[in-house]
Amino acid sequence: MMSWDLIGMLALVAFCAGFFDAIAGGGGLITLPALFLAGVDPISAIATNKFQAASATISATATFARKGLIEWREGRFMVLCGFLGGASGALLVSSVDKRYLEVCVPLMLILVAVYFALSPKLGNEDRRKRIGILAFSFTVAPLLGFYDGIFGPGVGSFFIVGLVLLCGLGMMRAMSFTKLANAACNLGSLSVFITKGVIIWPIAIAMALAAFAGAQLGARAAVRVGPRLIKPMLIVVCCALAIKLLSVDTNPLRMAFMHTLGSL
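Above: the chain's sequence. Below: its structure in token form.
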């Protein structure tokens, strides 16, 4: 049973992550490793993090829908494929030995941090169209949904970049499709995690509420600060957390490295 002090600390982390996510994206890069460092089982950490992330995503999607920015007809196949991809990823990660997750998660954190560091700047102007929304829905969306079910952090940014560079959409239109697809991926993976009973509800609810509050504050700060300062901070924090996870005595990669050193 988690102590209330630890739940409070994780809620504070979620608040900061929600603040960062509203400005530069990638809040999951903070919350997921924090759950690992708190001693939460890898599968439960991914599932619990998914609930708090999904709460914010679904809320944002509802806001876009109220403003009439969601293109339901064009996005319906993206919803279906994203949902199935998310569910498939969650089914896979639920059956994986936790030792593999302990190895893969820090490495994936570093890779996503590198992506954030090198990701192109995207404007609101339309670009040359390479594939249509329908083709994107049946090819890229299920792959990103699968990634979201397995891991998740950064998937919203991947959707935006894909929609802008492949489908030629402007930023706002790409963002509206992203909110819809991301919510579908989240619901797909959550449906599996809830069925498996691996979500730690007290932590999930506390983090969801804190992330929502942080996102509200971050949205207001975004106008003044923008992503220039937050994005580098997010990358540094992500790499630092990955290194911390790799330094844990029980991490298989660290154990293999120490064994190799000992045999030299």
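Residues 180 and 208 are 19 Å apart (CA to CA).
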